[in-house]
Amino acid sequence: MRIARLALEEKQVNYRLVEVDVFAENGVPQEHLKRHPFGRIPTFEHGDFHLYETGAIVRYIDDAFPGCRLQPTDPKARAKMNQMVGILDAYAYRTLVWDIYVERVVSAREGRLANEQKIAAALPHAAVCLSELDRLSDEAGFLIGGSVTLADLYAAPIFACFMQAPEAASLMDSCEKLIYWWQRFATRDSMSRTES
């Protein structure tokens, strides 16, 4: 959900956030299932136009609203952005957030023991994800080029979680471009406005 909110913030679009607990004890609220038959978040409404799936939502936001472009117009830069989004979606999210952050940080917060085997098994995969993201990153301040793209918006919520885990320090040690990017991106107004 934060990815879509970041897109709205970066485009300076006014929006109303309706929070839904898809992990509620009684299951996904029936009203939400009308908006998203698979019971996930986010969903998006613009007038009488309804969408679900983050990729569709953020690309629609980029095309439908004025403001900064979140997708490069250059075909190679756009392909590289899409490649990074694919890596973040297919490989990095589960590994960095669920297998490391949730097990290490959320478990401790909730008074549970971390699943050390799960974390240990995730570390090599996390290293590959981070190494590839670092290799593909530009040195222009953002992941792709000199302005915010969808790659930044997909990466930021993942890194906001992952960087809280103690494992992040050693895994990020050789990822200089990612470290520089995160130090800058973490302080953006859009990040502070989407923390909750």
UniProtKB/TrEMBL annotation:
<dbReference type="InterPro" id="IPR004046">
    <property type="entry name" value="GST_C"/>
</dbReference>
<feature type="domain" description="GST C-terminal">
    <location>
        <begin position="74"/>
        <end position="196"/>
    </location>
</feature>
<dbReference type="Pfam" id="PF00043">
    <property type="entry name" value="GST_C"/>
</dbReference>
<dbReference type="InterPro" id="IPR036249">
    <property type="entry name" value="Thioredoxin-like_sf"/>
</dbReference>
<dbReference type="InterPro" id="IPR036282">
    <property type="entry name" value="Glutathione-S-Trfase_C_sf"/>
</dbReference>
<dbReference type="InterPro" id="IPR040079">
    <property type="entry name" value="Glutathione_S-Trfase"/>
</dbReference>
<protein>
    <recommendedName>
        <fullName>glutathione transferase</fullName>
        <ecNumber>2.5.1.18</ecNumber>
    </recommendedName>
</protein>
<dbReference type="InterPro" id="IPR010987">
    <property type="entry name" value="Glutathione-S-Trfase_C-like"/>
</dbReference>
<dbReference type="Pfam" id="PF02798">
    <property type="entry name" value="GST_N"/>
</dbReference>
<dbReference type="GO" id="GO:0006749">
    <property type="term" value="P:glutathione metabolic process"/>
</dbReference>
<dbReference type="InterPro" id="IPR004045">
    <property type="entry name" value="Glutathione_S-Trfase_N"/>
</dbReference>
<keyword id="KW-0808">Transferase</keyword>
<feature type="domain" description="GST N-terminal">
    <location>
        <begin position="1"/>
        <end position="69"/>
    </location>
</feature>
<dbReference type="GO" id="GO:0004364">
    <property type="term" value="F:glutathione transferase activity"/>
</dbReference>
<dbReference type="GO" id="GO:0005737">
    <property type="term" value="C:cytoplasm"/>
</dbReference>
<dbReference type="GO" id="GO:0043295">
    <property type="term" value="F:glutathione binding"/>
</dbReference>
<comment type="similarity">
    <text>Belongs to the GST superfamily.</text>
</comment>
